[in-house]
Design a protein that fits this description.
The chain has 108 residues and is α+β, with helices and mostly antiparallel strands. It has 5 helices and 4 strands, in the order αααααββββ. 11% of the residues are buried.
Length: 108
């Protein structure tokens, strides 16, 4: 066996273990951390009717989930932000904020 190849090559099983550990750590992360959510009452209060999706994402970050529906004469998109038990929902009509709801600042 060549001395250089024995000292420099990590085993396939070691690489597999490291890959599984990395995937496991991502799965354990909070979803809001993965979506870059900046869900705070102050940020939520900055969102107002007529804003674009990109304006909302600048304030709140990427949503946790997105749902889009084509209705009779308009497109409805719903952004949902989650951070633990806190949530905010921003509804768009034809890509402009049409409404919002949250449980931020409410007593449990």
């Amino acid at each position: 066996m060549n001395r250089e190849s024995a000292t420099m090559k990590p085993s396939k099983s070691l690489l597999s273990v490291l890959l599984l550990a990395a995937i496991g750590s991502l799965a354990a992360c909070d979803r809001s951390a993965l979506s870059s959510s900046q869900l705070t009452t102050a940020n939520y209060d900055q969102v107002s009717n007529g804003m674009s999706k990109s304006q909302v994402e600048t304030i709140l970050g990427k949503p946790t989930t997105v749902e889009a529906k084509e209705l009779n004469n308009f497109r409805k998109t719903t952004y949902r932000y989650e951070d633990g038990k806190s949530f905010a929902i921003v509804t768009f009509k034809n890509d402009e904020v049409d409404g919002k709801d949250t449980n931020l600042g409410r007593e449990p």
